[in-house]
Amino acid sequence: MKKQKGFSLIELMIVIAVIGVLTAVAIPQYQNYVQKSELGAALASVAALKVNVEDKIATDGKFPTVTNANMATTLGATKTILGLMETKPAAANSKGGQIILTLSGSTQNSGKKSLLNVMQLTVIGFA
């Protein structure tokens, strides 16, 4: 009898099946991890902008209305790769309002919004 060299076809098919099962479990978990990290980065971006907004309130006496296009000129903040940032006052000539980051289509959370209420300094939630 000859000595067997290598693996049989059945052994290779079993290995491929095990790899397939592990991949089927790992990919959804990885996508959840990426979503959580994107939301954390969005919250950090919005929280960092809070200082600039509070400075603008102290300077102008009212909450700034800022779109993503004029974020750098009005608040001195850079654009984020996560999506579009804007601010909305609670009412006209109000010192309170929201900083809103709408996540873009390039993120797994596309269309979700990260909101921060500047006067109470609490996260409102994700839409």
Write the layout of secondary structure elements.
Elements: H1 9-60, H2 71-75, E1 83-89, E2 97-103, E3 113-117, E4 122-126
Antiparallel strand pairs: 1-2, 2-3, 3-4
What does this structure look like?
The protein has helices at 9-60, 71-75, and strands spanning 83-89, 97-103, 113-117, 122-126. The protein has 127 residues and is of the alpha+beta class. A 4-stranded antiparallel β-sheet has the order 1-2-3-4, covered by helices on one side.
Compact summary:
The chain is an alpha+beta fold and 127 residues long. It contains 2 helices and 4 strands. The chain has one domain: Glycoprotein, Type 4 Pilin (2-Layer Sandwich), CATH 3.30.700.
Distance between the termini: 70 Å
| Global outline | rod-shaped
Tally of helical runs: 2
What is the level-2 CATH architecture name?
2-Layer Sandwich
- How confident is the prediction overall: mean pLDDT? 77
Helix content: 40-55%
The CATH class name reads Alpha Beta
Summarize the main sheet.
4 strands, antiparallel
Low-confidence stretches: 119-127
Number of domains: 1
Helical/strand content category: alpha+beta
- Oligomer classification: single chain
Strand/helix succession: HHEEEE
Number of strands: 4
Key terms:
19% strand, single chain, 4-stranded antiparallel β-sheet, rod-shaped, alpha+beta
